Amino acid sequence: MQLGLSVSDSDVSSFTPLVVLELADDTKAEAITWLLNRIRDKQQNGAQDDQKPNPNVFVVGSTLQRLLNGAEDVGLFKEFQDGTMRGFTYANRESFKDFNGDGEGFLSDAECQYIIKHELDTLRAKNEEHVPGYPKLKLYPGKSVVRRLQSKGVLIQYFPLHNKEDLKRLSFSWYKKFKLSLQPLDDIRHYFGEGLALYFGFLEYFTFALVPMALIGIPYYLFDWEDYDKYVLFAVFNLVWSTVFLEVWKRCSATLAYGWGTLSRKKAFEEPRAGFHGALGFNPVTGREEPVYPSSKRQLRIYLVSVPFVLLCLYLSFYVMMVYFDMEFWAINIYNENPDIATSILLFVPSIIYAVVIEIMNLLYRFAAEFLTDWENHRLESSFQNHLVLKVLVFNFVNCFASLFYIAFVMQDMVLLRQSLATLLITSQILNQVMEAFLPYWLQRRRNKKVHKRMRRLMGDKELPLLGQVQLETEMNTYLGTFDDYLEQFLLFGYVSLFSCVYPLAAVLVVLNNITEVYSDAFKMCHVFKRPFSEPAMNIGVWQLAFETMSIIAVVTNCALIGLSPQVKAYFPESDTQLILIVVAIEHVLLAFKFILAFVIPDVPKHIQVNLAKLEFDSLEALKKRVSTHLYIESHWGPMFLLWTQTVGIFQRS
Amino acid sequence: MQLGLSVSDSDVSSFTPLVVLELADDTKAEAITWLLNRIRDKQQNGAQDDQKPNPNVFVVGSTLQRLLNGAEDVGLFKEFQDGTMRGFTYANRESFKDFNGDGEGFLSDAECQYIIKHELDTLRAKNEEHVPGYPKLKLYPGKSVVRRLQSKGVLIQYFPLHNKEDLKRLSFSWYKKFKLSLQPLDDIRHYFGEGLALYFGFLEYFTFALVPMALIGIPYYLFDWEDYDKYVLFAVFNLVWSTVFLEVWKRCSATLAYGWGTLSRKKAFEEPRAGFHGALGFNPVTGREEPVYPSSKRQLRIYLVSVPFVLLCLYLSFYVMMVYFDMEFWAINIYNENPDIATSILLFVPSIIYAVVIEIMNLLYRFAAEFLTDWENHRLESSFQNHLVLKVLVFNFVNCFASLFYIAFVMQDMVLLRQSLATLLITSQILNQVMEAFLPYWLQRRRNKKVHKRMRRLMGDKELPLLGQVQLETEMNTYLGTFDDYLEQFLLFGYVSLFSCVYPLAAVLVVLNNITEVYSDAFKMCHVFKRPFSEPAMNIGVWQLAFETMSIIAVVTNCALIGLSPQVKAYFPESDTQLILIVVAIEHVLLAFKFILAFVIPDVPKHIQVNLAKLEFDSLEALKKRVSTHLYIESHWGPMFLLWTQTVGIFQRS
């Protein structure tokens, strides 16, 4: 690895390092020169420059002018003078609220890094046949260069740099002061982007929403209220809570997203995923040239490969469940033959083993699902995410809850259900906290020490803060997105909403878990992982639907559990029929009520609806005007796109 | 009534009469002059003109130029050169597909009339304190002048004129040729507008969709297949059918509406209803001045008056139902005491009387609901319609089906259910056809003869085709919108989907009814009623939701009916419990399947989605451009609105 810094193409004094590119150690010099030239100027491709030695880590920055133009291109929404959120345009920059002077500080770090990422991702091959120096690394027009280099191991990674000062300020206000307060969501958003801020917002909201249920659950558990009259009340409360909870969250999320300017961003204009490949064609919507892949082929891959694979995994999961029940019976037999302390502890062993196996299976399946979904070649990141989430959710739901459903409705053994639920919940919480935060943190500390030692050996005591930082962060783990965090919350929501009427302490456990989760997640974002690229999310996406589906399943499950309870059965000694009919009727009424409630509560608060309608109105009025100056704009449109990709500054170690 | 024609403000040769305004016979001359001046030029208000005598029927036409500008203002979408649908703008008129020369024939009659209606409806009082000549008829700024005059009986009505030639052509291709063919939906749309064309499209689609069910139903009925195995098949087919039917209709409707340019029209920019009143304020979306009414007041009116009223009516309906059952038992008792032909006919009498009473109650309730909804003072026509439909649907559903549900699930008497269903269905069909078409037609013919006689007496044999036509049409009945027609289809859909597994012939009866319905509706539109104003509908609106709700209720009902049937019960001789559990499980699976199906089938066909996304993309790009020329447009926008309301030609009988 070669060290040292040289600056090219940029005024050093004004340079802010934003994104790091790491290439493989043995990358050919001509490939590097080619790539750097392409990044410097997408238009003027292929000019080679052999005089520099072979560095492998680059820091990319950009001029302000170019970032502002980039903000327009990615369709960033910022606050306008009149308080509404509008798409930023360079021409109209003076009319935006926080734009002063040349626009210094107008874009947050996260936004700048997002713009540069977008730039890099859309760097596409044109008429090069292969990567210079690598005759086997074929390119064809429209192929994403960065992704190609990445998939072939030439480009190892690219990631945004932390900003030490901002990070210190953020981590202080986020988790270092030990007084109860809300999370600084706006600061999180500024530093990590909207996607992550929405996750933390949801985590906080979910935890607060669970507090009343936890408060009710504690006396139920402590005083061992086996009175199922009260359980019915608890279940009904549970149902209304889960509906209102999700509906109100939609409104909160819309308010947050509007304030962050992501609510109005349109899905249809998403650039294709960096990994999306296909023959070069024309996007029917924008009319621009980009890869096209027939959706019939994708459907074939989904139905002929992915679906059978998921079914196979589900079968496997059921098989493991049956093994667990065998173990359970075996343990109970041993206990019955010789009941002492040792064997009573043995009773919990099968559940704990099963919980660990479930976690391992979930993990393995997760990788397989990601591979398959990538292979399905979805055009948009959102569509990729939807298919991945669907695959993972179906499996995780079955894997985690199948045994509980089996115990509840086939074996009808409420004692075992309670014990099994408690063991699964507690084991998976402990495992999660360890795997998610403590293990990576421990690994990271070991790595940090090694890096420091090596740096000191190489450079003596010279102060090279940027170089050291880049070196440290390059070796940090990569944060794989909010997916796993949401998944964990989804499963916790499942435990609470499906079976909490049998084990009311579940809500308490989840609240405790989530309070530590906020701190450990905050800590891992700030110090364990590389800074992630910001992701402009307008809501929690497919997870909203997932939580809603869970809450519908919860209605059915809770009603069935109530119907099964011996105390309720005692009210109808002569006939089961009447009991079942009443339970079914109540269930239908609850479901109908749920749908009506979801229908009546508007998803977006009134004042935001008005602002959105205003934007749309202006946009249509503008279209009317524009069509009249149609030809004029058409002829000036092309060159406009060519102007702004010219001045990304590049720092280069040599 | 004074007769004779005089032409003012317009070049006679190019004048096409479009809309008729009828004022009360004794209207004060100064009020007429004032109104005419206001219509001629909204801007130059109040110039009085006393020299003319007092006519009471006016024909309004317009210059082409002004209609084209009006088309832009109402946001008409027309086909662009590239085949997409775009908002029409006068400045860009040459780029639209069928625009030739000065634009003659570019707008259909129905569109022109719609534009003039919009003009008249938005004629608002400014600084006049009262209508000239009527000191008690107070006006305040923002109040719709036309609606004010109408509610006080000064303006009796205004309606679009028929176009004799087009009507002859349309009625020939629609219902006069006696060969099987699809309805000429595009012609209907051109003549009557999108709302009505969508209704006829839906009617046709619904009828075709029922044909398979009718074909299956006939052998069931003829061979008296009491085999409930097959009934279960029939019920399952029914359920899948009702879901697919509604989903596919959404796509058809989107295709039709896109082709007609109504799919992209935005709801938020609807002008307030002509009847909407409130203090003058600013619309937060458009920033224009218009009446504002606090929604809290509206909520109070809804919850404190409307809801209790509806509940009272429901109670009344149940009461009537109980009286019907008393009558039914009384008839059965008489038959049992003395079974002969007379008493066996008597068996049907209670059902027939009840069916008639139901129709009468529906009719009365309809008027009350309309009055209440009007009083709730909704800002948008669409919101008014939604509340009206909700009120009427809840009552009609209960009123029509309560007795059937009672017979099916409380009395569990399938023979009575079948008899009652058949009687209700047939009686209501006959009553509907008579009330809807034959009665108005008969009244109309009598009226026509009278008018002809009077005209001949007044004018001798002079040919005055326009005058005669206006006179005739003024006295025709007014078509009150598609509401009642949809309601009828909704109830028929209910009979078919809820109980057809008990009475499979229902589908056959509905198909037969709908075939005659197409002809009688077509006939009544062309010859019985005044031409209605066109209504730019993008779908069947709240009716889609109503039909979907009905199809969900149908799943529950059908499953319950299957569970109740003695043949199915025979499979589970030892325990009802198992049967009920299986039925409930099947019901849940069906409902889940239904929701997944509704979720998986996209509402709008792919190619139309692409076109819509394209329009939106262009519109956002245009907005970006526009914001940069913001100030320029702002300063030219005001006068633009003022320009185009100046040249409506007015014909006036004097």
UniProtKB/TrEMBL annotation, chains A, B:
GO terms for cellular component: plasma membrane. Pfam families: Anoctamin. It is found in: Membrane. It comes from the Eukaryota. The keyword Transmembrane applies. Keywords: Membrane, Transmembrane, Transmembrane helix. PANTHER family: ANOCTAMIN (PTHR12308), ANOCTAMIN-10 (PTHR12308:SF40). This is Anoctamin. It comes from Sinocyclocheilus anshuiensis.
